[in-house]
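Re: weekly structure request thread

Next one in the queue (209 aa):
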Amino acid sequence: LSGSVIDYPKKTRRFSAKASGVIDSKTLKRAVAGKPIEKEADFDGVIPFSLSAEGMGGEFEAAASIDGTRARLKFADLMDKPSGERFSVEIAGSRNKDSIAIKNASVSFGRSSSANVTGSVTPDFSAYDLTFRSAGVQFADIGRVSAYFIKDFESSGLVTFDVRAQKKSAKGPRAYTGAIDVKDARFETTFVPKPVEDITASARFFDNG
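Done, posted below.
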């Protein structure tokens, strides 16, 4: 951990801080002990992380990353990732009094899958302009980290997407533009009684705001 604060205790004080290390499963379990999430989550292994922040007053830039590859991560029916499966998250952004800018929020997992979000939201989340993108998420990779997929089933296929979601004001309408494409999808999930086989589909969104 390193950092500095200039002009403390003035409201205009500038700060800069960095931290990095490893979180182990005991620390994570202590953090959720006694909370509702405790019954839903399970951890084992270690998670390297890094954090940084720099700014003045209520305006700052920040970045964070975690690498859960070496850990087993389980959360309710959403995630069931064994140790050794790649899983990492990176976030970079900034905040001022009017908005939170997401320069990049990305997740990478499995052998070759990744997705990211960029854009901005108001501090109260009443308005936003966000773009969700992925050049490729493999259904096989989803099966490696998700509790929704049957792991004994050999999943395959690819989904790509580039979707923009907008809401320009608290009372304004939502608008979506972009595309989602699924190619040769094959998987078995807990949601349906039989395997899904050979699905190819496309969806296009046009400004409905």
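The chain has two helices and 14 strands. The mean pLDDT is 90.
Next request, please.
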